[in-house]
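Morning, I've got a small favour to ask if you have a moment. I owe you a coffee for this, so here goes:
>
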Amino acid sequence: MEAERYCLKITPDSLKEQLQAVQTAGGDGTEYLNSVSRADLCVDLKNNSWEFRLTGPKIPPPDNFVSQLKQYFLNSVEGLNNLTLLTQSAAEDSLEVWFSLNWESLKMEILQLSPVLRTVLEYARPVVGSNSVVIQLASPNAIEICRRRQLDTVIAGWVKERRGQLPRVEFKLGDFKGKIEQDAQKIQQEAEVEKEKRLRRQQLRAKKQRSVVLEGRKIKSSGEPIEEIRTQLGEIVTVEGVVIAAEFVRTGGKKKNFVKGIISDRSDSVSFMIFMDEVNEQLLSLKNNWLKIRGRLKMDNYRRRKNEIIFVNDVNRITPRIRRDEAPVKRVELHCHSKMSRLDATSDIRDIVQRAAYWDHPAVAISDHGVVHSFPEAARAGEEFGVKIIYGMEGYLVNDKRCFVLNDLGFDSSQLSLAEEFIVLDCETTGFSPLTAEVFQVAALRIRNGQVVDSYNSPVAVHRISCSLLDQTPLTKQQLLDGPPPERVSEELDQFIGQLPVLIYEASFVQNFLKKMGYQFRSPVVHLRRLVEKIWAPGRANLNQVFINRFKEKIEHEFDACKDVQRTFQIFQEISPKLSPDLSLDSIKSLEKQGDHKASFYHVLLLVRNRKGLENLYKLVSRSHIDYFYRQPRILRSDLE
């Protein structure tokens, strides 16, 4: 149902009389009103809005006049929600002239319908033809927003209602680089002015706080580092720093009241005690204050655990020593946690942004663990201190598309199966990195139709091995020193395996070490731990831990490759009923397509580039908490891709 509207015709003279209260001392709008030959007031009862339609002016109304007119009537007329001003020529000028006079009124009408379009219309320029209107915008994203909100229909309808002409409206990309750079320069100048004001306020505040005597006399000497006063027991010392703990103690009888606390100069800390004949109000709340104190350093004999303490005579408040960033090129912190990160930080987001502004950092990233709770407060702090906020998150990434079959290039997986004949392999190493550690034992089993038909077990000569490792392996030091070289073990292993499929619990780990030793796999490798995680989901448990949890058997030697291959085979027999009956590599590879959000996770840092990226981040966070939460809110790699 259309809004009920009616128009009132009023004379220009009466309008001028009514608008006398609107005029400023400078006479804004006087020249404009003098050129008005006719005035109509269109009233929309449904929306409680007015529209002044003024005929005759050849110039657009001044901005101050429009805002004053709107404010005057909104304050004077009860229930009035909106007021706009429309200019039309008495001589029926072209659409281009009419549109240029009323472009600002049209923008106000659009913003009344949708205030969020303010940033879109900030860089908008109309190009008007005889019966067409092209609105040039600054970005493809702005064009998409206008089309999605059907602003072309809104603009055409607005012109049709007021001019009786229905133009064709479209949106195109315009060149606003110069205006954007000019506005950015203006914003930077305003930020620099605000920064200077803030710095002057800080200097004034510091000047007021400088060398205020709270107790005793003014201290003219400079403070000594606290870490260097330990040898000066019984002497008068002067230190300065921030009070990290303070407590007022009121005593009874003739004993003096005192304040005891701890002062730190960021290199060390020391206890202090201030006795008072009368209660000094300025000494009752010293925590987080920067002080310079002077007194005698003694041992505190009143405590069971004796330590140094300063019995203070003089207390001065000093200017806080806040570290500054003196680097010529300022850094931008791209990984920062606030107190919204669980057990990872205690800093308030406003304090983080304020410190970035104090250090002249142009931006700072917020990357809390798994959540985006701090974004609203960060946005407010960024506007307050003039720091750009880079929105982000440190997420828990799960590789839900992991490979269960490695090294399968060039092989026909449909013809290979673990139900017929395959190899179970494992090795023991002196460390976790192939760059620094060595293989000291290799063991393998040949399995045919579910039965062990052959085995291989050999030590490998190493340069050195720790005593603690020797205590956890059945091999002796002499066996390792006199063992065959890695080259010979690689040849024997190649003859034993051939081109049969290989089953390894930690396939990637073993592959890297055997490659360093000189052995290259010539057959597909099945990663058993990933299958175990897929079926049992025990997290990141190692082979021995999985074996103990599943079979409740005691582990005699922690590092024994011969036993490890037997445990690997037992675990495979336990999970094989949950796989396909033929145990083909094709069926094992098909499990890769089934995402698993309960697998092992890794930390990933996500930073937002634009509004679309922020929207995508919100979607990822929502899914991680609603669909994929398992001990932590997890993000699937497939969603990122």
Q: What stands out?
A: Residues 362 and 387 are 6 Å apart (CA to CA).
